[in-house]
């Protein structure tokens, strides 16, 4: 469930929406009492599907007069469209909600390196592609929700713990093709090697309380309902449920808590939403202004406040619920590794029987 936009965000997000095709929508952002829309436009290809992002586009148009024309796809379809369009693609900026898919876009040549001192000053090196092709705009931790009445936090302080006999028949997970599971497995392959990662996946399969199913929110609900003791989830689903207008969702979090397990004692696994300059951008200057805007305090604040994601910049303001978890260290996985092991991650899941 997506958190309701705040009053400020709603005021900022006066957006026209028109259908493009079954799995895509195109929008143009505008707002009264702002800079006149004389700054031209940019074409945004995005795989993010949050209403809060519309507030960011509107705020950018308001500040610059540059209209944002958005085409939204799921990541596989977005990459396929870029491939089909080739050098004639009108895309100026590419945004994808998963670091693995963002890395694929870069490796396929859909993004072009560019230097920008503003972005480099705001975004730590860890969250920037070493070749300058893309950078993180928001972070999400792939962690563990656990039953506080049956699990001690120290029992889930390492991802390896989830595959131990302690949790036989007590783990809830999504299917293996869930994008965040693929990216987590890619990280484990990089850190542990393929054989240990396979053993871990087999351990998870042996420990499953039920067949993989449902969303991350469903995994949290299953823990609360006593169907399992631990579940793999992204952090923000728990935060959204905790502050939901739905009393049933809030009740789910009363006896469920978040643990931030470590990989080799170096930090928890964080995935990224990323952004980059399209290889054939027809509106390059406008695109770079937009990319800079995504790292600024207004956009970073919207990511944190409206979608409960962690910012990637060091000076962003966060609401209390997000800030309460912001001290957890992130595993310093090199950004190229998110995409490098993606195909192998899927093969390991298949070998392990994680459907």
What are the main properties of this structure?
355 residues, alpha+beta, D-Maltodextrin-Binding Protein, domain 2, eleven-stranded mixed sheet, 11 strands, 39% helix, disordered N terminus
Can you offer a commentary on this structure?
The chain is α+β, with helices and mostly antiparallel strands. The radius of gyration is 20 Å and the shape is globular. The longest helix is centred in the first third of the chain and has 14 residues, at 51-64. Residues 1-31 have low confidence and may be disordered. The protein contains 15 helices and 11 strands. The protein has 2 domains: 7-139 and 270-323, D-Maltodextrin-Binding Protein, domain 2; 140-268 and 331-352, D-Maltodextrin-Binding Protein, domain 2 (3-Layer(aba) Sandwich), CATH 3.40.190.10. Strands 1, 2, 3, 4, 5, 6, 7, 8, 9, 10 and 11 form an 11-stranded mixed beta sheet that branches. Helix 6 crosses helix 7, helix 6 crosses helix 15 (342-352) and helix 7 (194-207) crosses helix 15 (342-352). Helices cover 39% and strands 18% of the residues. The protein has helices spanning 7-12, 51-64, 75-85, 99-107, 117-122, 179-192, 194-207, 216-224, 235-242, 247-252, 284-294, 297-306, 320-323, 335-340, 342-352; strands at residues 15-21, 24-29, 41-46, 67-72, 93-96, 134-147, 171-172, 230-234, 256-259, 270-277, 310-311.
């Amino acid at each position: 469930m997506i958190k309701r936009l705040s009053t400020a965000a709603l005021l900022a997000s006066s957006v026209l929406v028109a259908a493009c095709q079954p799995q895509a929508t195109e929008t143009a952002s505008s707002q009264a009492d702002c800079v006149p829309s004389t700054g031209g436009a940019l074409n945004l290809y995005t795989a993010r599907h949050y209403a809060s992002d519309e507030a960011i586009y509107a705020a950018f148009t308001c500040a610059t007069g540059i209209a944002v024309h958005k085409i939204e796809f799921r990541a596989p379809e977005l990459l396929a469209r870029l491939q089909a369009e080739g050098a004639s693609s009108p895309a100026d900026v590419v945004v994808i909600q998963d670091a693995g898919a963002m890395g694929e876009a870069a490796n396929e040549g859909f993004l072009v390196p560019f230097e920008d001192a503003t972005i480099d000053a705001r975004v730590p090196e860890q969250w920037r592609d070493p070749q300058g092709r893309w950078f993180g705009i928001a972070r999400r931790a792939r962690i563990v929700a656990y039953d506080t009445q049956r699990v001690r936090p120290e029992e889930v302080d390492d991802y390896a713990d989830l595959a131990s006999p302690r949790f036989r028949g007590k783990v809830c997970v999504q299917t293996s093709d869930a994008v965040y599971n693929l990216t987590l497995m890619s990280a484990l392959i990089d850190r542990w090697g393929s054989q240990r990662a396979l053993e871990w996946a087999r351990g998870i399969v042996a420990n499953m309380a039920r067949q993989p199913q449902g969303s991350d929110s469903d995994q949290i609900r299953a823990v609360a309902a006593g169907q399992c003791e631990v579940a793999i989830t992204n952090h923000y689903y728990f935060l959204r449920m905790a502050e939901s207008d739905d009393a049933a969702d809030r009740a789910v979090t009363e006896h469920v808590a978040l643990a931030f397990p470590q990989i080799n004692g170096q930090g928890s696994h964080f995935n990224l939403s990323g952004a980059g300059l399209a290889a054939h951008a027809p509106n390059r200057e406008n695109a770079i202004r937009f990319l800079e805007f995504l790292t600024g305090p207004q956009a970073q604040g919207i990511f944190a406040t409206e979608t409960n994601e962690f910012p990637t910049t060091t000076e962003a303001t966060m609401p209390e619920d997000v800030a309460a978890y912001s001290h957890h260290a992130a595993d310093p996985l090199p950004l190229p590794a998110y995409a490098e092991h993606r195909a192998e991650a899927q093969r390991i899941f298949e070998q392990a029987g994680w459907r």
